[in-house]
Amino acid sequence: MKTWLFQNTLKRKVFLFVLVILVCFLTGFIYTFYATYKVNEQINEMFSTSIMLNEMQDDMNTLEVQLENYLATKNSDSFVQYLNMYNALGSMRTNFSYGKSNDPSRLQLHNIGMLLDAYLDKAELAIEFKRARNTERYLESYSELLTVDHYINLKVKQLEEWDFETNLENYLLLTEKVKLVQNGLILMVGLLISLSVLFVFTFSTNVTRPIVELSNRARAISEGQYTFGKIEGEHFKEAQVLESAFDNMAMHIKNYIEELRDKVETENKLRLSEIEKLRMQNLLNQAELMALQAQINPHFLFNTLNAGMQLAIIENADRTSSFLEDLSQLFRYNIQSLENKVTLKEELVNVQNYCSLMKVRFGEQFIFDFDIDEATLHVEMPPLILQPIIENALIHGFKNRTGSGLIQIMSAMDHKNVRIEVKDNGEGIDCDTLERLNNKEFEKNADKKGYTTGLGLGNVYDRLKHFFNREELFYIDSKKEEYTSIILWIPLEGSDNL
User: Fold this and answer.
1) Which domain holds residue 170?
2) Domains in the chain: how many in total?
3) What pLDDT digit, counting tens, does each position of 125-182 carry?
């Protein structure tokens, strides 16, 4: 606590100022209260004697009137009123018992008290003589009562004259005291106003100066300046803490902006690199497609195939006509843009045409089994997805195997996806190759492309990924010498027909 009192903090300044103001107000209040109390006490003392004597004289007058009525008429109501006044004066008698005193006023009051006793005794004697029907004596007692009353009035008048002079002097003294109290109040108010003005001026200066400087620094930060010097002058400890925190914040902002600038530059370089990579990939895809399409003149091919179909019809060669029709539709489907959008139904029609051609070519060596859920036929996807997968199974799954091979093409609903599976009972894939393929490392298998489309599994995955903007679309499951299964998940989201 002692250390805190000597710290130059805003809290300490405000606390001390409020404490000084409260002490000044409390001192002024106590002084004013005490002075007012003393003045009131003296004023009450000045007039209390006069009030008491006036009340006594009023009661004596009332007692004399009631006593006179009773002596004259012996009226019971007058007697009751007389007793009330008698008791009141008897109670008042104790206020005049001062005994021996050097104060003339108190000595005079003591004499009045003794005369009051004689006054009440004469009243009692008058009542007793009235009851004894001794007219001469009760009139004598009543006359003596009036004489004592006269002496009491003289004493009261003399005492009032003395009190007037004393009260006049006391009044002048009280006037001087009141002026002193007023001057003290004015001085105290002036002192408080001066202290308040001084505190407000110094307080506002010490508080606003660092705030203004910090606001200027904030403006400078918005303009790109982050290094500042120390604020001049003495300030509160809170202002020093704010200054230090502000400088640290400016330094952190500077470092953050530099890091952000470096990050943005790095991201821009990466983005440019990615764009260039995509552009090169697009060029490669276009070159691959153009190379594929350049192998056959489409018009010559279609015209030749149509001529062969017509010749087969004329010669009643139905199988040859069907073969040529399947081949024509297959080539027509294959030479379309890989950026097109087709349905699973269209993709399956092309696969069926391809499988028909393979049956003609290989006979009963391969069996193609289709298990398709009709609810999945309208899902949208890129073209030439399933044919490269089936072709990959024919070329690599049964390369070193004899006997018939089974290739199953299945589709089913799977939550928010359509699950498409192409499964063969070929020679399978070894573990290392399977792991690379599932890690989407198709580069080492780039030479393993289909003979018809020229599209490998890497191309299929890349086109699916860019078409759906997702990566979890492709999975290969295989067991050596037993089977290979390629599973696709085609998202239902974005399909207008499901």
Assistant:
1) 14-208
2) 2
3) 888 888 888 888 888 888 888 898 888 888 888 877 777 666 666 667 767 777 777 7
* 249 occurs within a structural domain: no
What the block records as the tokens of 413 is 């609903």
Instruction: Determine the Cα–Cα distance for residues 210 and 242; give it in Å rounded to an integer.
Output: 9
Q: What is the mean pLDDT of the chain?
A: 77
Nearest to 69 by CA among 78, 77, 80: 78
Specify whether the CB–CB gap between 299 and 352 falls below 8 A.
no
- In eight-state DSSP terms, residue 230 is P
The number of residues making up the chain comes to 498
pTM above 0.85, yes or no: no
Q: Which residues pair with 8 in a beta bridge?
A: none
Question: Which one, of 204, 207, 263, lies nearest residue 239 by Cα?
Answer: 207
What six digits make up the tokens of 440? 């989407």
| Domain edge (last residue) among 208, 227, 243 | 208
- Would you state the structure tokens that stand for residue 192, as one six-digit string? 């408080």
Domain boundary among 155, 181, 208: 208
Pairing of strands 366-372, 405-414: parallel
What does the block give as tokens for 107?
């000595």
The C-alpha atoms of residue 82 and residue 71 are separated, in whole angstroms, by 11
Query: How far is residue 261's CA from residue 339's CA, in Å, rounded to a whole number?
Result: 37
Is 354 part of any domain?
Answer: no
In a domain, residue 439? The reply is: yes
Residue 171 sits at φ, ψ, to 5 deg, of -65, -45
CATH number of the domain that residue 466 is part of: 3.30.565.10
* Domain contains 398: yes
